[in-house]
User: What shape does this take?
Amino acid sequence: MRNLSVARRLGTALLLSCLAGAPLAAETFTERVTPCLACHGDKGQSDAPEVPSLGGQPAPYLLIQLYLFREKQRVVEIMNDATATFTDDDLRRFSDFIAALPPPQPPSDGAGDARLERGRTLITQHRCNSCHGLDLAGRDSIPLIAAQREDYLVKSLREYKSNARPGYDPAMASVMAPVDDAQIRDLAFAIARFR
Amino acid sequence: MEETWGDEGALRVEPSPRRQAPPHREDVHDSACRRAAEPVARHHTSCTDARLLAAPALAQQPPAAAPPAAAPAATPAPPGSPLFGRPEGNPAAAKLAPIAPPPIPTAADKLPIAKLKVPDGFNIEVYASGIPNARSLRLGDQGTLFVGNRFIGKVFAIVKKDGKTEMKTIAEGLHRPNGLAYHKGTLYLAELSRVWRFDNIEKNLDKPEKKLIYDDLPKDEAHGWKFIAVGPDEKLYIPVGQPGNNVLNSDAHGQIRRINLDGSGAEVIARGVRNTVGFDWHPVSKQLYFTDNGRDWMSEDIPEDELNRITKVGEHFGSPFCHQGNLLDSEFGWGHKCSDYTAPVALLGPHTAALGMRFYTGSQFPDTYKNGAFIARHGSWNRTTKIGADVMFVTFNEDGTVKSKEPFLTGFIVDNTYIGRPVDVEMMKDGSMLVSDDFNGAVYRISYGKTNAPGR
Assistant: This one.
């Protein structure tokens, strides 16, 4: 389901860049970044299932993650392929470009939902807001998580917990050790709606 | 339930009486984890994870010993978290967090070499650059420089030939391959929880083959990366750090072990070790000296990192009960005495992250350097004003105690910001010294006297 929609987006993106008729070698940066934005959203906010919003991420965090994708240290086939031929300069350029996109906006639903309150309590208890900042906007190598897609938050928190995503800095594995799956869902609900 | 991982309050249990040697079990992957977490044994299950999955089962059993007061409800930062122990609601403390090095090395022409300072008569130059996250250094007999790291899953070999520097990847897909040792043609490599050997490495740089020799190691991320070395007794020394900032660790943590070079015969030789990332043997006394990183969040100024000396097998160096030889821990120290533990031979500054060290046995540097030790300090994160980020030089008295310590290579901190961070030192055959910098992905060479380095 997710793959389908992602593939469709990629297809559209490729089609668009082909229609533009640019020979591959002379692709402009805008052309190169078009497929990225087709999946991730062109205004920093993703509307595709389990595809993260990228807007507002600190450039150092993006650089690290793109590097990990290129080196296949973070294994996600789509992203490993997307970055396979990137030079170090490409990694920097894409990071700087994406970092300048506007941060995602939270959905307006959920008021009065008990998960909101439980999630907020967990954020304080587990001090998510110290590393990620009181505004959960991240800094340097620590990502922005405020208003990130809820399904992606659930996915990434589960992956840190199971060590499927060891991370560049190993901090998240220890952070997640005492957090159970119901708490992960509460956290994701509240963080996705954090404002 | 004889041991646990000492966290989440309710499960804390005193370590069982010290055992000299954990059995070596070739067939068991991470037996320590399993002991704590039977029957959970998934592929890729980390200790932390296994511990958690096992928690309901464990919780039904009464604790074997009265646990210390449970952590207050508002501070459940797990012991593995760098935030464990951080004071609540303090804005200065809230600004401090470990600093991740960039994954991409600094370009050769942008290295901070001109800002680095060495004593009069010494020279510093760039030996190699473009080595991502360059950390542990080991030289082979034929001059190959092996470089390990924490963040890049590869091990690199630097070969200099005909004035050209070539970087080869000799292994990849590894998990935090920080530890390297070289002995009689063989390279030993320690990932977070596995130790490999590469026989005849310098003859096989293009087709290296590795053999797993030891994996009876916990998988905790916190303090899990390793420094390793082969001792004068022809054994491989492997530390197992405590799995968090300040924890009452299981019997399988907080120690230095040694194993035979084929992986057999594991024996614990030191306990109460929080996290050592550097050691070497005194060239004359053959005693093992090791650096140990002190706990975080107690104060900006205490405890200090330690330089320790092992005089007999099984010594306990205090952590987590007593720090820096004279300071009982505010949480675990109650009921303990510092005099029950071996005190350090030198204090190396608070939060300075004293890492790699080597004794100097070469003849290029002036006589005063003979048999002294160089210690790389990575620099603090848990302190408002950064300190460390240098290479220190330490001299010793005949009885093995420390005579003097002074900064040797400095200049890595500018306006309270790192422009580089030293991790390890290694001595070249000609008596010059290499220093790794994981922040810039570079290795520097320090020599004494008139330079004959080409082009400089």
The longest helix of chain A spans residues 2-19. DSSP finds ten helices and no strands in chain A. Residues 2-99 of chain A form a domain with the Cytochrome Bc1 Complex; Chain D, domain 2 fold (CATH 1.10.760.10).
